[in-house]
Specification:
It contains 6 helices and 9 strands; from the N terminus they run βββαβββαβααββαα. The chain is an alpha+beta fold and 188 residues long. A hairpin with a 3-residue loop joins strand 5 and strand 6. Helix 1 runs parallel beside helix 2 and helix 3 runs antiparallel to helix 4.
Length: 188
C-alpha cells in the first residue's frame, strides 16, 4: 500500500423527508493521503434506489485514479441503500463503508418493511450483501474510539493499515469526515 493512497470519501448532504425537494446531493471528496485534491457531487433521490449508480458515477468522474472507495454507511438520503458488492464488481476498486455505531439488523429490517411495505426486498438484500460488520479501535486525540465497517475487495486487517494513513484525529477517515462536513453545510 502506498504511503499516500488515493481515496474518495462519500456522504450525503442534509435533507428533509416529505420536503419539497425530492433529492439530496451525494458528496465525494478525493484525497491523496489526507490532502484534498477534488470534490465531486451528484444528486440522488431521497429514499430512492440510485445511490449505487451515483457512487459509480462519482468514482468514474475522478479519471480512474481512486484506489479505495470510502463511504459513511451504506445508506444515503434516508433508505437509498448502496449495493457495495455491485460497486466493487463494476469498478474493481475496494470499498469500505464506515459507521460509528453497531447496527441492529433486525431493527433496520423492521423500519424498511414499515416504510416500504410492498418494495422492501431489494433494500434488505443490499444490507445483507454488505456482509460482516467489523469492529476496529482507532487512536484519536481523545484516546481510542471504536468504528465499525463493511469491506469488499480489501481484508479487514488491511483496513487498519489504510486508516493509519488517511486519518488525522477522527475515527472516520479524513475523506469521509470532510464529505460529511460539506454535506452538513447544505441548506435544507
Amino acid at each position: 500500500m502506498k504511503d499516500y493512497p488515493i481515496t474518495i470519501g462519500i456522504d450525503d448532504a442534509k435533507f428533509r423527508f416529505n420536503g419539497q425537494k425530492q433529492t439530496t446531493p451525494l458528496i465525494g471528496v478525493v484525497c491523496q493521503g489526507t490532502r484534498v485534491v477534488k470534490v465531486v457531487k451528484k444528486e440522488i433521490f431521497i429514499d430512492g434506489d440510485d445511490s449505487t449508480d451515483a457512487i459509480i458515477d462519482l468514482v468514474r468522474s475522478c479519471e480512474n485514479n481512486v484506489q479505495y472507495i470510502l463511504t459513511h454507511t451504506i445508506t444515503f438520503g434516508g433508505f437509498n441503500i448502496a449495493d457495495i458488492e455491485e460497486i466493487y464488481q463494476k469498478l474493481e476498486t475496494p470499498i469500505i463503508a464506515f459507521t460509528e455505531r453497531m447496527v441492529n439488523l433486525d431493527d433496520v429490517k423492521k423500519a424498511i418493511i414499515k416504510k416500504f411495505p410492498n418494495q422492501n426486498t431489494d433494500k434488505i438484500n443490499k444490507i445483507i450483501k454488505a456482509g460482516n460488520l467489523y469492529e476496529m479501535k482507532i487512536k484519536t486525540h481523545g484516546g481510542y474510539s471504536t468504528v465499525y465497517f463493511h469491506s469488499v475487495g480489501v481484508p479487514p486487517e488491511k483496513v487498519k493499515i489504510l486508516m493509519e494513513k488517511i486519518s488525522i484525529d477522527s475515527k472516520l477517515p479524513e475523506p469521509v469526515r470532510i464529505a460529511h462536513l460539506i454535506g452538513a453545510s447544505f441548506e435544507i
